[in-house]
Amino acid sequence: MQPSTSTARGLRSPVALLAFAAAPLLGLSDGVAAQIDTVGTVPRVDSVTTPPDSPPWQDEVSIQGTLIGVAAGEATSGLRVGEAPDALAVQTLELAVESSGPDRSTSGSVVFDASGLVNAAQDVSISEAHIRISDGERLFISIDAGPLPFGSFANALLSQPLSQDVYGAQAMSVSAGWTPADNAHVAVAWVDGRPMYGQWLGAGVVDSAAADPAESGMTDSAGSAAGEGTSWIVSASRSILGDRLSGGAAVLTEAGAAPRSRFLNAWASSSGLGHPGVEVDVEVFRGSRALPLRTNGTRFMETTVSTTVSLTLPAAPGGTRTGRTFQGRRAHRRARPFELAVRFEAFLDDGMAEALNTWTARNRMAVGGRYSFDPDDTFPGFVTIEIERRTFRDALNRTAGRTATVQAGIGLVF
Q1: 172, 200, 303, 369: which could join 348 in a potential S-S bond, CB 3.0 to 4.6 Å?
Q2: What is the pLDDT of residue 24?
Q3: For residue 140, what pLDDT is reported?
Q4: Are 286 and 263 within 8 A, CB to CB?
Q5: Is the distance from CB of 6 to CB of 37 less than 8 angstroms?
């Protein structure tokens, strides 16, 4: 007797062979043996154990970083401020770990600064930490440690803008915000302490010995110890014309002497409006510092203006190019293969140098360029060069000194 077609197919499995051989003894028909073949073979395929899917959050974890090594040289005439830059140094070594939920309603990131580990055998420090929770639509709450949500600090060059030196304070903050549209943002932030209290002293814009603010642990004229109190930031931003034009404003009011110190910020950024590839960034800060200076508590309304014009190739409109956070700086370095930029910044001291009989910064100007070998690569490398000039004024508003610095660097973004 020739086996049926269905039984012949069953010969491909041991279960089918056993069923076919036992069929005459058990009185089973070929059709039943074929059914046993089906029952015996299909489960063997379906019962193969596969590893369970990874938790959703694991699919959203990323590790990113930036490494920049710099060779620098400096020439000074007249007044000298700060120390000369190292001839060779690792300027930036940042590593970031970021994770978000599958719907991106929750996210968190930590940025480690490891440059000190290379240059001076120091420990790795945490420069930024962020946790953001949103309803998936318009409302959000964030907890941030690191750069305050105050200022844009757009940067197309190797050195940090003067405005960021003066106003780029870091502290712990809690923000609540609303995004009424995809291109708009409004937020209120609570800040622990007095982030701007001594930020400017290390910025190289004023003689810290002459300014003589209350040291940490001492009290100001309102009896509030340095570092104590609560500060607030209210900010808003908006992009229009398909991200070709962006702008924002913020106000920071700081705890301490009455009246409280207040700092205002406004910025605007255009991309490709006048000419394809030309990007312009303008930012203005104005501060009223309630610090007990040597002039019997005189308060100065200093103003800082920063303007950057850059040419990027290939020409393409881009969004906000903030340099305040790691993600903003990283995104900008990966955005365009080629960039040339000029930045000019002025510090208007409101008569501070004359009143304190000392020096203050007058302006900074920098010219530079960057070329990325393959910005679309997983590990794009780039080379960059910059020439920066700093000018200082004396008590009589004369030029007290100039410093010129040349920096050349090679970097990796991943």
Answers
A1: 303
A2: 47
A3: 92
A4: yes
A5: yes
Both tokens assigned to 351: 């008569």
pLDDT value of residue 293: 55
Q: Which residue has the tokens 């995104």?
A: 331
Rounded CA separation 375/333 (Å): 8
Q: What share of the chain is helix, strand, coil (3-state, %, to 5)?
A: 20, 45, 35
pTM score, two decimals? 0.79
- Stretch (H or E) spanning 382: strand 381-393
Residue pair 339/385 in contact by the 8 Å Cβ criterion: no
Alpha helices per DSSP H over 249-367:
326-335, 352-356
CB hemisphere CA count around 273 (13 angstroms): 16
Name beta bridge partners: 309: 280, 342
Tokens for 414, please give them. Answer: 């991943």
Both tokens of residue 34?
């074929």
Q: Residues 183, 189, 195, 196: is their CA dihedral positive or negative?
A: positive
- Which residues, 6 or more positions from 138, have their beta carbon under 8 angstroms from its beta carbon? 178, 179, 180
| CA-wise closest residue to 20 among 45, 50, 40 | 40
Torsion of CA 369, 373, 374, 375, to 10 degrees: -20
∠ CA 138-144-149, nearest 5°, is 70
What would you measure as the largest C-alpha separation in the chain, in angstroms? 119
Place of tokens 């002497």: 257
- Residue written as tokens 């089973």? 28
Task: List the single range of 13-27, 229-243, 293-307, 343-357 with lowest mean pLDDT.
Answer: 13-27
Instruction: Give CA angle at 174 (264, 244), nearest 5°.
Output: 55
The residues near 170 (Cβ < 8 Å, ≥ 6 apart) are 127, 145, 146, 147, 148, 195
CA nearest neighbour of 148 among 132, 169, 130, 127: 169
- Which residue, chain included where needed, has tokens 């978000």? 100
